[in-house]
């Protein structure tokens, strides 16, 4: 039981970090656009 919970937790962390990377890249792209305008 405990191993199953750990596996689920690890997969959630993996998905979360992938989502974080996408958000970070999107924010950096927006920041670069703002800098280009100025």
UniProtKB/TrEMBL annotation:
The protein's name: Putative propionyl-CoA carboxylase domain protein
């Amino acid at each position: 039981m405990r191993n199953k919970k750990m596996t689920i937790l690890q997969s959630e962390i993996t998905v979360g970090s992938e989502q974080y990377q996408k958000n970070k890249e999107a924010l950096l792209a927006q920041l670069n656009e703002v800098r280009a305008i100025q």
